[in-house]
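Hi everyone, sorry if this is the wrong subforum. Our group has a chain we'd like a structural model of before ordering constructs, and none of us has done structure prediction before. Sequence below.
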Amino acid sequence: MPELPEVAAIADYVDGRAAGLPIRRVDVASLAVLKTADPPYSALAGRIVESVSRIGKYLIMRTMPGADAADSADPTIVMVIHLSRAGWLRWSDQLSPTPPRPGGKGPIALRVHCGLPGEGFDVTEAGTQKRLAVWIVRDVDEVERIATLGPDVLAIGRDEFGAILSGTTGRIKNVLTDQRVLAGVGNAYSDEILHTARLSPFASAKSLSPEQVDVLHDAMTTVLTDAIGRLEGQTVARLKSEKRTGLRVHARTGLPCPVCGETIREVSFADRSFQYCPGCQTGGKVLADRRMSRLLK
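Answer:
Right subforum, don't worry. Here is the predicted structure as tokens:
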């Protein structure tokens, strides 16, 4: 799943190429990805891309009327994209002028032609679980998921962070990935943050000591800013592989921890899993895999 560093890198990459360009056409191959109908996606044609940015893990493409727009044209129309678990964005200078076939089996869900013929991007989704979502709105707060987001993880200081943790219940892994509490972190970077902070994923959020909160806040900031720096300037096509090179525990089950050498372990539940190091995070204790038995506290 693309998280804050990848979404920030995608936004920066597309903004550098699309900002100031006219949108010539929008093709929708999967109507299921569209979560709004007013304004229609066709209203984007003829508008200018003003900027591409992010809010939490959401891509935000703001547009303004083109030079030939009528006086009644909406001053702002925003395309909001949530890539979810298997979505991605691909920029191309050689987009096919033929619209993708609606309901086709390919990964393309939506195509935006902007700039010169051939320029633009595809929004794609792999796999069979279709969770990609696109909203066309006049204000981002019309998207309920954004309106209910918690503060951005890179915009909060230590004191606010501590207050959030003390006011929540549940395990710290769940708190870090709950977008209604903190926006931007998902499964992969929460594993990395907790490893850096040397905290068990099952530690109670509100029971952390002030010193542990200090360490966790610093780890969160350091892990995310380092990832952003590592991805800066990369093409969108290289972001996934570059992300993997920076991970120390996530998706490394069975490999030695680069810090202490202990074997990295995994806990699985439902349709996902997370990784941790017993030596660094749980005092050597191996957490039971829920597939085999219930989780140990």
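For your construct planning: The chain is about 25% helix and 20% strand. Strands lie at 23-28, 48-55, 58-64, 77-82, 87-92, 108-114, 120-125, 133-137, 265-269, 272-276.
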